[in-house]
Structures are given as structure tokens and as C-alpha cells.
Amino acid sequence: MRLFIGIALPATVRQALSGAAKTMESRMPGRYVPMENYHITLAFLGETDADGLARARRAMTCAAANQCAVPLALDRPGYFGRRENAILYAGITGWDALARIDQLLRQELRNVGLAFDPKPFRPHITLARHVCILPDILNAPLPPVCFPAKGLTLFHSTRIDGVLTYLPLAEAVFPEIS
Ligand code: ATP
Ligand code: MG
User: FRET partner for 149 with CA separation of 20 to 30 A, picked from 67, 93, 112, 125?
Assistant: First the structure.
């Protein structure tokens, strides 16, 4: 099964983003991501068997063990790739602590012997693919929504009746430290 570890987003954040994405879609058509699928990817594991799944759960639990919730906020839109055929994303602010958790998670994945895509962590929420970017969009801030990353989620990326779905398989919550 195709697995990745990421941050699940609260429904309020997904709703706010979906509203912003609809406005952008009217000017920049493309393949927009349904709001149920909005997330932040930390480590992409790819095709993994049941043993790998168990290892991934162990690594997540270790990485999350001494963390506390990370306050994040939506920033501006941005894009990857060529401007004429880009991946449009929502930027995020306040992710320093999340980058440290990602480093820890990647180390724990190495410790349990699991391979993952080694590309550096670029925190973002993908909104659409195959978009031709209009430059003024990049200066328009997204809704000023703040939200906490409360833990790591292991997602199964699969198609259900042909629809791409990210099924949460396991969660490792960051314990509240008072
Ligand atoms: P599709 O591939 O069907 O267009 P998708 O990219 O959303 O859809 P997946 O390829 O399963 O679905 O990816 C799941 C998540 O992992 C997405 O956030 C995606 O951007 C990220 N991802 C996919 N491949 C990689 C990779 N090689 N390295 C890092 N992240 C990846
Ligand atoms: Mg993909």
C-alpha cells in the first residue's frame, strides 16, 4: 500500500482553504484537490507492506513522544514547477518546530529501516495541479487562519471507486506538556 506521514488539518481550516481555492479556480482553472484531501506531507514512504506499516507506526510514535502541539497559520499561496503548469499550494507560517519534528521522524524512519523520499521538507498544502499561475494571486494573502498541528498521521493513499482518498490509518498525538 502507498503510505505517507503528514499532518491532518482541522475541518475549519480545510473549509477556509476550500473557499479561497474556489475563488482562485475561477481565474486559474486546473485540477483542484477536494478539501477532504488537504494535508501537510512530512515523509513520503511510497509502496509499503504490512511489516513496513508496523515500522512506520513505531517511528511515528517515537518521533511524537516528547513533542507538543505546533501552532501554525496559513500564509500566502505559492507554486512548484513551471508557472504555466504548476502545483498551486497554500503556504504555512510557524513551521520551524514542525521541521524539527520532521527531522526527528526521518531519523526514526531510518532507525526502523524504512525508506522514504529524501527530498527536503517544504511545508505546504497542495490546492491544485496543472494550474497556470497568475502573478497577482501570489500577493493575495489566504484567510488568516491559525491552527495547531496536534500529531502525526499515517495516511494510506488509495483510490476508492476511482476517487483518490487519503485514509488515516494511525495517529501519534503530541502529548500536551504543561
Ligand atoms: P496523484 O499522484 O494521483 O496526482 P497525490 O500526489 O496527491 O495524487 P500521492 O502521490 O499518493 O497522491 O501522494 C500523497 C502525498 O505525498 C501528497 O502530498 C504528495 O504531494 C506527496 N508525495 C507524493 N510523492 C512524493 C514524493 N516522491 N516525495 C515527496 N512527497 C510525495
Ligand atoms: Mg503523486
Answer: 112
Per-residue pLDDT of 44-87, as tens digits, reads 999 999 999 999 999 999 999 999 999 999 999 999 999 999 99
SS3 13: helix
For 74-102, the DSSP string reads EEEEEEEEETTEEEEEEEEE--HHHHHHH
Which one of 17, 20, 39, 116 is the catalytic residue?
39
Instruction: Give CA–CA dist 54/48, Å, rounded.
Output: 10
Supply the residue whose CA is at minimum distance from atom 25 of ligand 1.
Answer: 44
Q: For this structure, is 39 an active site residue?
A: yes
Other CB atoms within 10 A of residue 146 CB = 11
SS3 category, 62:
helix
Put simply, whether the predicted model's pTM sits higher than 0.90 gets the answer yes
E strands within 48-162?
70-82, 85-93, 125-131, 146-149, 151-160
Do residues 123 and 92 touch, judged by C-beta distance below 8 A? yes
**Which helix (DSSP H) or strand (DSSP E) does residue 44 occupy?**
strand 39-47
Radius of gyration for the alpha carbons in the chain, expressed in angstroms and rounded: 16
